[in-house]
Each structure stands twice: as structure tokens, then as C-alpha cells.
Amino acid sequence: MLIITGKITKIENISHLSELRVLNLARNLLTIVENLNGLDSLTELNLRHNQVSAIKDVDTLPRLQRLFLSFNNISSFEDILCLADSSSLSDITLDGNPIAQETWYKHTVLHHMMQLRQLDMKRITEEERRMASVAARKEEERKRESHKQTLLKEKKRLTICNIARQWEIQQNRIALVDSLNQDKDNEPCQINGSAAYVFPEESRSLDTILSSAVQGLSVLESHLVEVEGDTLCLYGAGALECLDRNWSVQTAGIIVTVSFMFIEFDEIVQALTKLKIKFPNSVHLKFKETNLVTLQQFNALAQMHRIEQLTVDPQGNPVVNFTLWKYYVLFRLNHFNLQRINGVKVTENDIVMAERLFGILAYVASSELPHYRMLSLFGESRRKQFHYLLEGKGKKSGIGSDESSDNRRNGGESTTRATLNYTTKDLHMEKLEEIKERKTFCQTYVENLVKEAADINMKNESLQKLWPQMFIELVRDAVIEIRNKNSYMKLCLQRITDQKQ
Predict the structure, then answer these.
(1) What does the pLDDT look like over 111-141, one tens digit per residue?
(2) Phi, psi of 273 (to 5 degrees)
(3) Distance between CA atoms of 310 and 345, rounded to whole angstroms?
């Protein structure tokens, strides 16, 4: 037995004591337990009342049975993890350490040190071992689930960063093309619609992010679809493809809010029909980094079933820089009876102001539009209503508020407001291409007609010049043929015979 007391701070120079059975180092200033190699006969080690915060080499003591670590600074099981590898240890005390105050303390120690018979001078029962095993399994499951969620969150964050980077590159490319088309001078071009998207917690470059990504994450996607409670979040243009999936009735029914990020508004417009069919209960639309640039784009939202809230983030949507954009939305989407715009409650005064500012706009638009174009915009019921207005039986729309009020009560869209529609850039280009093709066809057709008419006229003029001489020759040939009647008759009979044969 060896007792060392005083103020020693380090264990050293005892590896030669291979026959030592009991080592008492209580009430010293030890912070790390190490350098115990060679004590092959040691069965008891007393380290009470030190400042121990970590233990090493104890698992190398083949005969150690009792270890007293009461009243030290051990705060986590990782600090004494080597004890789990000791096959001979049967008694241990850890009371008086920060670790002993943790709720998981006893269960964790018993789970990792199944060979123990006593813990903190109390005998361990089989029930305690069983409870420790159950608690340890639950803790492991919790940790695995927590780790899984951490990985998913990290993957989500990295994916969104990747989508944001692709969006920025796309916007820069579009801005560059527009700049080259409009101005051939070497002036610096501005990014149209959006600046680089930066997450509040992330200031590093994407390359740094990717290099530090946790191991096991799959290749980053170019889009992301996520359901958070009653909100469907769509990141990147590819996310719109989710509207073609077979959503369960339960999942589709709980979606109230649809959030769009890093998606061109023109692409969203093409998916609005699917959106209102797939998620009939959606009443709140959010737009962030969607290139909402003009007031006219809001016209496209009129095709939804209903909208109670609209949120347009200033980031990536320059349209919010227009002072009157909210009033235009209230005017154009009057039939939805919007409750909130960007989180601010809509008042009756806002609706009246919107009508005053833009009420004449719909009337002017409908007045300038040909009747056949008006009819093409409406369904059967709306056509009847329009005919009713044309016959003078109804009040002119856009000036009075009666029709607007009726439509709001009935949930329908104002006839004149329906003339304020929006054509996406792609559809506009398709129409221009179609017009160009028609123009080319008409031009070719007219050119062919002119050419054919010119040929006919030239032939007619040539005939007029040749006809007198041709007529004289015809008369002369006829006179010559009938001058000798007998010969002429024989010739005619011969011709008839030859035709029969």
C-alpha cells in the first residue's frame, strides 16, 4: 500500500511498482490521472478530493477493482470514457462531481460499465441495470434522431445556398444580355431584380460551405420542396414540378401558405392553375427573389380561387419600390377581398383609395379593347354579363362601385378588371414568333400571287402581238386545205379512220 498526500499535481515515477496493490492519492492537486502503466497488481486506487477532470490509462490496469473519484471536477462521461474498457473494475464512486448532478448520470454509467457491482458505495440491483439499459437505448435513439435532424438541416441550408448561388448567376447572365442588347458601350451592368442572397448566419463563400459540409450529405440539389406545418416552401424553378405529384388529400388540405423563393414569376404564373387545383385551401402567397418587376404581373394572380394574404418580400422584387403597388394589388384583386398585404391589415380606406387611383384604368382598358377580344377573356356567364352591359341595361364598369361591390360579395371578378391581364415573357415571345411566321407566310403568298399575275399579263401581251399573224396563217391554211374539195374530203375521211383505229 502506498499513500501519497500533499500538493502533488502530477502522477509520475511509479511505473516500476508492479507489486503495488493499493494506491492512495487523496487530497492532492491532481487534474489528470495518467502514467499508471506498469501497476499490474493494483486493485484499489483512491483519488478523492483532487481536481481531476480527465482520466487516462486506467483501462490498462488489469486487476483494478475499486476506484474512488469522489469530489473532483469530472463533468462529462467522455472524461472517464476509458473506464468503460476496464473489465476488472467492480466498484466506483463519482459522487461530489458535476457529472453526478446530471439526470442521465446513473443510467449512462451503468449502461457503459455493465460489470459494476457498486456505484457511489451503493449496490447495483438487476432492476437498476435493466432501467439503465432501457434509458440508454432511448438516449441513443434520441441522439440518432437528433443527428439525423442536424444532417437534414445542414443539407437544407447548403441546398438553399446552392440554389441562391445559381439564382444569382442566372440574374447576372440576364442582366448582362439585357445590357448588351440595350447598350453596346462598355458600361458596367446592374443586376436586374436581385442582389446576392446572403443568409444571416452565413457570411462564408459557398466553396467554404461545401468544403466544410458534414460527411455523408448527398450531392446538392438545384431545387427544394418542403412542408413546414401549413406552409409549402418551394425553392428553385425545379420545385414547381412538385405540383405534378400525387399529393395525399390530407397533406394537400392542410396547406394554407405557399412560399416561392428563387423562382422567376413568369414560371410561377404557368403553375398557378395546378396550384389552385392541388391545394384548394391555400389562401396566402409569399414571394421572395421572384423578379416581380411590374404592376402588370399582379394581374396573373387573379386566376387563383382565393387569396386572403399576400406577402411580397423587397428582396428580389423591385415592384415593392413603387409607392402605389399595394393599392394596385387591392384594385386588381378586389374580388378576393384581401385581408393582409405584407402582414399589414387592409382597411376599408385602403380599398376606397385603390378604387380612386385605378378605377378609371379598367374602364379605359375595356373601352379600347375590341368586343371580340373582350368576349375571348370571359366564360359563358361573363359573356352574358358583358352583353348585358353593351345593351345599356347595366351601369358602366370602372367608374361606379356598384358592380365592384356586387362582384366582391359574389366572389367574382369585375368584368372590366378582367381586361387587365398579364402575358408572360415566354408566351409573348411565342405570340411574336407566331405573328412573324404569319407575316412571312402572307408575304410569300402575296409575292407568289403577284408573280403569277405578272406572268399571265406578259403572256397576254405576247398573245396580243402574235394574234393577227396567227389569224392570217389559220385562214390561209384553211383556204388551202379546202381549195380542192375532193382531196380535202379524202383527207378528212383518212383522219376519221386513223382516229377510230
Answers:
(1) 788 788 888 888 888 888 888 778 778 878 8
(2) -65, -45
(3) 11
